[in-house]
Structures are given as structure tokens and as C-alpha cells.
């Protein structure tokens, strides 16, 4: 480094950075600089392709056990507003970025992202060629990795990575779920500029917290749900004793096959009352019906994942975060009328490519031994994997992605509306114009005739006393200090 460049660097936020090292299980390594807390973190390396919403990604409990690489080059530019956090504290192991912004600029920002990471003891590395890293993960798949600011010898850190524990077979849900049941009804006051008034409470709903993002629960409240949130392993008998109108199974981290105490409860509840599941909840409902679960090569993570709705023939741009998926064909044998459609196999290591049904414009139905007919409703257009199913003989449906747009688009908001329609007893509950419903509940939405729609003439802010967040660990409120 020349004297001139050193002089220039001294007057920037990049001067005096500590070195850091990222090493993957296959020996690939990347050097960079620390932008979080000092230490060493082990986990599964993955990447997220969203262009905004880094705070929601970092605080999503579904990232427990993982090292997250952000593909967008600069992260932290608008800082951190604590009301946007999706949990009481990040569950991810480490963060990898190209460039970390130390001096954010946004009227809602409370602290910088590096300070937030340090406060929450998250190891982070910047200066990494994230384009090269993401290409490597796409080519060779997700794998164990480590980020360290204290072990800077590649061979030594690689040895430690190889000895670390894989997320396969681990029950990470129990590390992020709450310890006791609690009511959930508070909405962040600082978001009132964007949202209309929530609908009147009409539906008594019990939500299983498998690592639920707070925005998911908030959307249930906005749609008129009187919400009680329970731990991941709450017995079905206790839930039925609450006499709910419906049950919701949330997103969550890790290997779904390891979360037996949740999918056992699903088996007990299916057919007894309306059920809606997302992400891990989708996997729990699939396993309950006897489906096989496959580990995807590098998963679906980001706010720009295209999904085809086989019922409406519309494409939804969705928010996703998962590394496992349901093998639709394992749910049962196709009904006779669908057997003439050929489904190619073997794309990208997946057990099947369901885009054949997209090309045919058909939503196939299988005969399930436990619950009767099950219909494929949504397909991922990138790799042809299953993204949604509907139980046709019991009141239940689920999708693999996140419908609440934190971060991401609002295309899939209609799924909350569908849940309320299911609880109303509407047999055609999924028949929704998603283009009209996508802005329901937002102040900038117009003419949204859904349960979440509000009178747009009312422009007064929400009258909420505070913006405290519930802790996943205890169910108690934690002030946003």
C-alpha cells in the first residue's frame, strides 16, 4: 500500500479493520475483514438473493445454524430499525458480505448494522468476493463452513470445520421456539405509516412457533385473528382444548425430519379443524401425510423466487428461506386422469421436475393413504420443486414460502385471506384474485375487497402504545432498547 492510499484510507471507515477468514468444508477459502464481533462461528454456508431487507434476513429464526451470504454488494446502508426485527435476537451463526456500510442514512435508523451485529455477538466478514462464493455454492452445494477473526490459518480452520456438526439431523427448532404459550396482538407503531388498521378480531387461532418470524404473526393479527402462540412441541390435545377456529404452523430452521414432536401433532390435528402451514409448517404437514423430504442442493433463499400458482395460472414473486423440500410424488399415486402427463425427473438433483404441470396448466391430484386427495397447487419455476399443496378432503393447505413480504414482495398476501376463508367454511377458499389482494391492509392499497382491506379514507396513524417485541425464548416482552 502506498503512503497516499494509506493516508486516504485513514480518513474512511475502512481503516484499522481486523482480518477475518472464511473456509468451506471442501477447502475453499476467502480472506476479508471483520465487521461484527470477534470470534469463530461454524454453520452451513448459504446465500440470500434479496436486494433489501437485510435486517429481516439476519433476524429470521429460520437461519439458525447457518452462515448467510448476501448477494447484494453493499449491506447496512439504511441501518437498523429495531421494530423491523423478526425475532428478539439473531439465530444465524455468521454473516458474509461484499461491503459493509458503517455510516447508514435513513430517517428510521437507530443504530448501524455493524453495531447491531456486535451487540448480538454475530461474527461477520466483509471484503469477500460474494459473486465467486455464490457461484461456488451453486456448483458444489451447501456445506459446512466457518468464519473466524481469531483463527487465520486456513489449514487449522479447515480441520475445525470438518469436525463441526452438520445441520442435517439436528432439531434446531427447539433452539428458537418460545418456552410457553402467550397471546400475540401488538403491532409495531413505527410501521403505522405503511399499514391500515387491522381487521376486527373474528377468528380464534393457535399458531405453533417453530421459529416464527414476527411479521408472519403480525399479518395473522392484521387479518382478524385472535392469536395465541404456542411452543413447537405443544400436544395437539392442549390445542384442541383451546377450541380454536384454526391452527397455523410457522416457518422454522433446519432438518424437518428431526422435528418429530411437531409433525406428530399435525397428524393429530389434520381433519379436526382448519390448518394453514408455511415453510417448515409445509414440511411438517407433508411429513404427516407420509411424504419424503429431500435436501435441496443450495436451497431457496431470497425475495425474488418465482412460483407458479397452478390454480390461478399467475406467477408469484415470493420470499423464501429453506434448504429442504417435499417430494410431491411420495404423497401418493396420481389419480387416473393425471397419469397421461409425463413428469421428467432428475433436474438439479431434485427427485422430480414439476414444471411439466405448469406447461400443461394442470394442478395434479394424488390419492393419499391417510388423508384422501391432495392437490399440487404451487411449483417453483427455477427448479420445478413443490411449493404448495392442498388437502382436498380435510380443511388444510400449506406453502413452502413466506407470504408476509418481510423482506420481499406482497404477491402472496392472499394466503392469509385464504386461511380466513377456510375458517369461514368456504370450499373455494383458494380461488382469489391475487393481483387485487396483494395490497390488502397497506395504506397505499386501493379497492382491496378482502378481510384485511381497510377504509382508505382513514389516514390516521395506528394508536399503539408501544412497539415491544416478544421473546422467542420465554414469550415475554422485550423492550427495543
Structural description of this entry:
This protein has 481 residues and is an alpha/beta fold. The chain is built from 12 helices and 23 strands. The protein has helices at 3-10, 54-58, 113-119, 130-140, 154-163, 214-222, 236-241, 260-269, 280-288, 355-360, 414-423, 434-437; strands spanning 19-24, 29-34, 40-48, 66-70, 74-75, 94-96, 99-100, 123-126, 144-148, 182-184, 203-209, 225-231, 246-249, 275-278, 292-309, 314-327, 333-334, 365-368, 372-380, 386-391, 396-399, 469-470, 477-478. Strands 10, 11, 12, 13, 14, 15, 16, 17, 18, 19, 20 and 21 form a 12-stranded mixed beta sheet that branches. A 7-stranded mixed beta barrel has the order 1-2-8-6-4-3-9. A hairpin with a 6-residue loop joins strand 22 and strand 23. The radius of gyration is 22 Å and the shape is globular. The model is unreliable at 446-481 (pLDDT under 50).
Using the alpha-carbon principal axes, give the shape.
Answer: globular
Structural class designation: alpha/beta
Distance between the termini: 41 Å
Tally of strands = 23
Separate helix tally: 12
What is the CA-based Rg, rounded?
A: 22 Å
Fraction of residues in H or I helices: 10-25%
Mean pLDDT: 89
Strand content: 25-35%
Low-confidence stretches: 446-481
Largest sheet: 12 strands, mixed
